[in-house]
Amino acid sequence: KSNTTPFAVTANVTAEQFKDSIVKHLNATHGTDVNKASNRSWWNATASALNEYVYNGLSNTQRTYFENDTRAVHYFSLEFLMGRLTGNNLHNLGLFNVAKEALNDLGIDIETLVDEEEDMALGNGGLGRLAACFIDSLATMHLPAVGYGIHYEHGLFRQEFQQGRQIERPDSWREYGNPFEICRPESVQEIPLYGYVETKFDENGHIVKQWHPNRVIKGVPWDVPVVGYEGTNVNVLRLWESRASDFFNWDVFNAGGYHDSHRENVEAETISKVLYPNDETDAGKELRLIQQYFFSACSLKDIIRRYRRVHNDDWSKFSAQVAVQLNDTHPAVAIPELMRLLVDEYNIDWDTSWTICRETFSYTNHTLLPEALEKWSVRLFEKVLPRHLEIIYEINRRFLEEEVEAKWPGDDEIKAKLSIIEEGHERMVRMGNLSVIGSNKVNGVAEVHSALVKSDLFPEFDALWPEKLTNVTNGVTPRRWIKACNPKLSALIDETVGTEWPTNLELLRDLDKKADDAKFQKTFMDIKHENKVELTKVIKDLTDIDVDPSAIFDIQIKRLHEYKRQHLNLLHIMALYRRLLQNPDYDMHPRVFIFGAKAAPGYALAKDIIYAINKVADKVNNDERIKGKLKVVFLPNYRVSLAEKMIPAADVSEQISTAGKEASGTGNMKLAMNGAITIGTLDGANIEIAEEVGEDNVVIFGLTVDEVKAVKKAGYSPWDYYYGNQEIKAVLDWFETDYFTPGKPGELASIKHSLLDGGDPYLCLADFESYAKAQEQVDAKYKDSKGWARSAILNTAYMGKFNSDRSIQDYVDRIWKLKAYKAQ
Ligand code: 26W
């Protein structure tokens, strides 16, 4: 039993004290007592006890930043996929063991307690989780930073399966309150919308523009403290909730329009009601544009209010104090909004304003998929944000007439490509072009992706501004993704390389000395086995499927997308099943294929793939003939807290996107750090992972980016593979039978169609054979248990680069130029 904590901020806290604090909060804060408290009350009381230290750190940090008048980065993101906070905050404050002991004395199991917390699922996937890892790193590294986003009432939908089909249910993460957020009514903002622009002349005869909005929305900030590791700095994630503006509302109410005022409320509250569940497809919906503007405008006003408290009307230091990072183009409307505030509201001339803007903003690109590149119709923009459209036109005019004309005189083709406005049947505002033009740096998220951003997406911009486009390879926080989620492995690492690794992941490199040590191999693989046993319980609980922890646990967890190719995994599973049926002695180590994935509610084929995996699972899992050699499990409602249970138990990590399509991937990093061996394509960060861990410790297959381009250029025909490979043909034909859907032939046919008549846009069939061979390599490798253990250990040892602290340091050095301030 440990009675002290490892960190200065909580150094003298004993389990006894923490226990008293929990009991005190149970009574005084939550109005119950030890005899009748529910698990939820215990969780609330523990959170309150914990918050005493959080708030202390928050005050110290905010005071330190204020007193030093620090430059800060403001991370604008429509998504923050935070997951649960209790365990993470306890770990980062060094209080986990203290709390565990305190709760134990009170008869409460800490694991049961943390399971009380709903995930804060305010994001879809990689982009939102990256934002969450980044704010953890910023606080850990004592960097002045604020996360800005939306306080969604409903996060990403809860996924259920009904007869194998995905059903979406609303997520209500804060229905009964959330102990980690603080409402700040003193910092409310008002945001205009709609209306028209009036052109007037001022006393000097200059043209001035006046926007007459016909709606005003109130933005109410909720602050979530972000506790850095060791608890010294506590930064803020500020999330805006929309409400009807009081003054607007009272007018209507007094005029007797109770129902009208009620409708105003409902409409205003709709803005922050729900997270859009699409990733990678831009639907162009009015409410989404309003969400983007609402939170960007609230955040900029908040930043300006804080700036003016110190600098009043001296704008010359603004861009020295304020960096704004745009997480994809979703908050790009912040660029014309800052122009509007400076030019219209603060009467600063255009050129000065534009210089400030360009020095303030930077933009991270997360995708090259054309359907994900945001475009808004000019018509919609004009309706919702008429003044912003005018400003965009002016930005565009000056850019094309001055900068593009100077570089490429008279070249209208290049002008058409670089214009913020896309001409055509319906004129569109291109948010990517706006973001590049209005930023000082633009980065991709892995080497290969950033190279493609330069060569394929924005080549002319790269020619115009050779310094602007850059790379920052993604990373993940080892505090959540090793320390908190894999306590057994963490304890082994502590014993082997010391306890400093959570803030210096390169220290894991020393584990390589133990990679061939038989005793260490056994301990490492025993921990993996124990984690697998834990996951078998979760699987049983969620699906009622029995799996054997001595089988290979092969895991694919990520959003469901054709480009991520869960269906390639499925084709291979069906091929294995077929081999086993043809030859029950087919030589393979037993394997459990485990999936976790949500499909966007409107993405029919993605939902069909989920259904197909579930149907194949039903059949395979109950087929006595294959003697348990193959199991398929689709865990419902994949989310951060489930990932934390799956990742420590993975033997194999499936990273099988079509080369050139996955910008980076971050799950690939989490799995490899926890000792899983990657089977993957040369795509995104897989390439850099392979470089770091070495080619003997990953299994690479498939076409490269250049080969994919060449195959497509030559005119790819999936039919060649269908007729050229018996196994492919047999498996695809299987989809049309009722073998997996008894009595209902054709229920799975859409997958076959997409891969043949649909042209197989993501080259599943072209990569199938190479993938199947790679899977045989995985099998052979696993049978060599010493070789496998060595590779698994070296994966953990050599993943230091993928700490999000390293990513943040790259942003600091190349883009933000921030200085650290340790809270006093
Ligand atoms: C307009 C709709 C929309 C919504 C979300 C388009 C695109 C997105 C995101 C960019 C999707 C996303 O999460 N992208 C992922 O970002 C991760 C973090 O950089 C990368 O690791 C993933 O490869 C990328 O798919």
Automatic annotation (TrEMBL):
Q: Mention one GO biological process in which this protein takes part, according to its record.
A: glycogen catabolic process
What PROSITE patterns does its record include? PHOSPHORYLASE
User: What Gene Ontology cellular-component terms does the record carry?
Assistant: cytoplasm
Keyword Transferase appears in the UniProt entry = yes
Q: What EC number(s) would the UniProt record show?
A: 2.4.1.1
Which terms does the record give in the GO molecular function aspect? glycogen phosphorylase activity; pyridoxal phosphate binding
Q: Which cofactors does it use? A: pyridoxal 5'-phosphate
N6-(pyridoxal phosphate)lysine: modified positions: 670
Q: What UniProt keywords apply to this chain's record, in alphabetical order?
A: Allosteric enzyme, Carbohydrate metabolism, Glycosyltransferase, Pyridoxal phosphate, Transferase
Say yes or no: keyword Aminoacyl-tRNA synthetase present.
no
Q: Which reaction does it catalyse?
A: [(1->4)-alpha-D-glucosyl](n) + phosphate = [(1->4)-alpha-D-glucosyl](n-1) + alpha-D-glucose 1-phosphate
Homology family: Belongs to the glycogen phosphorylase family.
The record describes the protein's role as: Allosteric enzyme that catalyzes the rate-limiting step in glycogen catabolism, the phosphorolytic cleavage of glycogen to produce glucose-1-phosphate, and plays a central role in maintaining cellular and organismal glucose homeostasis.
Q: What is this protein called?
A: Alpha-1,4 glucan phosphorylase
Species in which this protein is naturally found: Psychrosphaera ytuae
